[in-house]
Design brief:
- The complex is a heterodimer of chains A (about 240) and B (about 110).
- With about 240 residues, chain A is an alpha/beta fold.
- Chain A has a single domain, classed as 3-Layer(aba) Sandwich (Rossmann fold).
- Chain A has helices at about 45-55, 75-85, 105-115, 120-130, 145-160, 175-195, 230-235; strands at about 5-15, 20-30, 35-40, 60-65, 70, 90, 165-170, 195-200, 215-220, 220-225.
- In chain A, the strands form 2 sheets. A 6-stranded mixed sheet of chain A has the order 6-7-8-3-9-10. In chain A, strands 2-1-4-5 form a 4-stranded antiparallel sheet, with helices on one face.
- In chain A, strand 9 (about 215-220) and strand 10 form a beta hairpin.
- In chain A, helix 3 crosses helix 4, helix 3 (about 105-115) runs parallel beside helix 5 and helix 5 (about 145-160) packs parallel to helix 6.
- The longest helix of chain A is centred in the last third of the chain and has 18 residues, at about 175-195.
- Chain B has one domain.
- Chain B is built from 5 helices and no strands.
- Chain B has helices at about 1-15, 20-30, 35-65, 75-95, 95-100.
- Classes of the chains: A alpha/beta (about 240), B mainly alpha (about 110).
- The interface of A and B includes residues 49, 55, 57, 85 and 92 of A.
Chain lengths: ~240, ~110
């Protein structure tokens, strides 16, 4: 089976004040559909740059980024925008919901952008929010929701249009421990249930207990790949 | 006319700057720049029409209470001229805002910038 995400020898160099910095240095990795991967590493290790490359927001200097058998590096800006809309789901650090749309409308925004607004998908958006424990909050504005609830709306928005890949950038950064666990546990369950390929950038190793694979980055390179359950659990518990 | 252009343009620009991250997020999730531009122009024109209509109505109501000693006259052609001019310069004042949002990078949603 072809992997949902395949990255081949990707390098990204930033030029700052005449000097060149390799933010991502010859990274290769694969993620299968239904697999949840954590991208971890210290600040400046290149994980957010890697996420931006995966999302088609940044073009690498060399290498290939293949999602659903389509190479993002060969696409024009406009094609990458429509690709993101159709094939990718995003969860940002701050939930980044549209403040004047209700929880349900925020989720349905992805359906509108994909011209998929119909009764069946309306029900799907509603059911997704109910599944995420927000059945009583469908018509609340983001300002009326807690941080954890907002992130759960963001999860629903990232999944409602049935993307191939879901990318999360520090989704628990603004949450307390209990809510962070709730959010990532639910996110992982949905990734597995719906067969999406999920990649989560995180600083918090405790959140790694819900993933299937951990990729550790240092200075732009993959320094460790863990896909053994016992090792993942040990790392998540700080052992 | 110039003052109107600056005031309306300034208002839209302040509103725009507050929404840069939000627009970055919308572009990151797949909203095209053309959709952002069309939506911005539509909102600017709509807000401008509402503003001019409310302003004209307010002015008309005030004229009913002006004492005759105040040397101000609001007559048909003068008022129509002002309304049409404001309707025209509103979108013109919003041009800078449209450009600002058109060039917002989706990377801002990740706290990055190229």
């Amino acid at each position: 089976m072809k992997p949902a995400i395949e990255i081949r020898d990707v390098t990204k160099i930033y030029e700052l004040a005449g000097s060149k910095i390799k933010a991502v240095d010859g990274v290769s990795l694969t993620v299968q559909a239904g697999e949840f991967t954590a991208l971890v590493g210290p600040s400046g290790s290149g994980k957010t740059t890697m996420l931006a490359i995966l999302a088609g927001l940044l073009r690498p200097n060399s290498g290939q980024v293949i999602i659903d058998q389509q190479d993002l590096t060969l696409m024009t800006e406009a094609k990458r925008t429509s690709f993101r809309c159709r094939y990718l789901g995003f969860i940002f650090q701050a939930s980044n919901l549209v403040p004047y749309l209700t929880a349900l409308e925020n989720v349905e925004l992805m359906l509108k952008l994909n011209s998929k607004t119909n009764q069946a998908n309306h029900e799907r958006a509603k059911n997704l929010l109910i599944r995420l424990g927000l059945g009583e909050r469908l018509h609340n504005l983001p300002g009326q929701l807690s941080g954890g609830q907002q992130q759960r709306v963001a999860i629903a928005r990232a999944l409602v249009h049935e993307p191939t890949v879901v990318l999360a950038d520090e989704p628990t950064a603004s949450l307390d421990t209990e809510r962070a666990h709730q959010v990532v546990e639910t996110f992982a369950a949905l990734i597995h249930e719906q067969g999406r390929a999920g990649i989560m950038v995180t600083h918090d190793l405790r959140m790694c207990q819900y993933v299937d694979q951990i990729i550790q980055m240092t200075d732009g390179k993959i320094t460790r790949l863990i896909n053994n359950r016992a090792e993942i659990t040990a790392l998540a518990k700080g052992k | 006319m110039l003052i109107g252009l600056l005031v309306i343009g300034g208002y839209f620009h302040v509103q725009t700057l507050q929404k840069v991250v939000q627009v970055g997020m919308l572009k990151a999730i797949g909203t095209s720049t053309s959709t952002v531009v069309i939506s911005t122009i539509f909102q600017i024109v709509l807000i401008n029409i509402c503003g001019v209509a409310l302003g004209a109505l307010g002015t008309f109501i005030l004229t009913l209470f002006f004492p005759v000693t105040i040397p101000l006259k609001f007559e048909g052609y003068t008022v129509m001229g002002a309304v049409v001019s404001l309707l025209a310069i509103g979108p013109l004042g919003g041009v800078v805002s449209v450009r600002t949002l058109a060039v917002v990078e989706p990377l801002t949603a990740l706290g990055l910038s190229s």
